[in-house]
Amino acid sequence: MLRRVLTLFDPLVRLLLLAILLASIVPVTGEGKAVARLVSDGAIFFLFLLNGLRLPRADVLRGIGNIRFLLPLALWVFAAMGLAGWAMFHLADNTLPPAIALGFLFLGVLPSTVQSATTYTSLAGGNVAHSVVASAALNILGVFISAPIIIWLASAGLPTDTAGIELSALERIALILLLPFVIGQVLQGRLGSVVTDNRKLMSWADRIAIAIAVYVAFSSAVERGIWSQLDLASWGILLSLVGIMLAFGFFGAWWLGGASRLERPDRIAFLFAGAQKSIAMGAPLAAVLFPPAMAGLVLLPALIYHLSQLVISAPLASRFNPPQPR
């Protein structure tokens, strides 16, 4: 129970809730939106530069080489969850605003988390090394997989109300996500120690960058009247559909890990890496991929899913690895 309470007050969760509250009370409007987007882009650039500096190339290569674990995990995270997001999109299409319905597609093809998946894998007695490497590899693959899938779906007949995703978004992804990551990998030998020696400071830099992206994106959603667009019934539908996605993600990932005949520690790592979705990737990707007027609305299902997965994961980890009596 204590672990669950502490999880609810995770620093990133607190910052995300603060960003949403601040955007609801003091949203960025008018001429400030252009400046805010520049700040958001700069924060995202810095975030991916840090990712490039901190992630050892050997770990990435080792994770990609573990085909027996990574291949079914990648298929689950991007294909199976993507199909679930497609189903939720169609269920939400006539009952929720189009951009929020599109958010289920976006949620479905997001990569998994790194930090929280690893933390819960450790608490549950799972294979931490597999979790770290696989989650990191999936986040790198996500830049190449998630965005093209969304762009392809958008060009394949999504409602006109969701228009605004253009192929030029790939250029922004290359400049704001891929370029800083590559620079970080190149400079890893010289500057990597700066990141590893200041992990606490760098961790807060990560969280603040994500919170800035969420604040700027959600400001546009507030300006478009998100709180007036969603009545009580709409919130019930939104939360129910996110709940279905959560159930599918966790039960399905656990089942597939068993069907793949993974050892229990590997299966636990597969569960948390396969069921969790990364807001650390989702917020920057939404800010880069979608116009400001859409980004906050599209991000809403992912925000709810992220907060919910933390609440679910804590008791699951305790169940897998209960505290030993003294």
What do these coordinates show?
The protein has about 325 residues and is mostly helical. It has a single domain (about 30-320), classed as Na+/H+ antiporter like fold (Up-down Bundle), CATH 1.20.1530. About 80% of the residues lie in helices and about 0% in strands. It is built from 16 helices and no strands. It has helices spanning about 1-10, 10-25, 30-55, 55-65, 65-90, 100-110, 115-125, 130-155, 170-185, 190-195, 200-225, 225-230, 230-260, 265-275, 280-290, 290-320. Mean pLDDT is about 80; it is low at about 160-165.
Major sheet attributes: none
Distance between the termini: 18 Å
| Number of helical elements | 16
Structural class category: mainly alpha
Q: How many domain units?
A: 1
List how many beta strands DSSP finds. 0
The fraction of residues in strands falls at under 5%
Global shape: globular
Which residues sit in consecutive blocks of at least 5 with pLDDT less than 50? 159-164
Question: What's the CATH class, please?
Answer: Mainly Alpha
CATH architecture: Up-down Bundle
Helicity, as a percent range: over 70%
The SSE order reads: HHHHHHHHHHHHHHHH
The average pLDDT score comes to 79
CATH fold description: Na+/H+ antiporter like fold
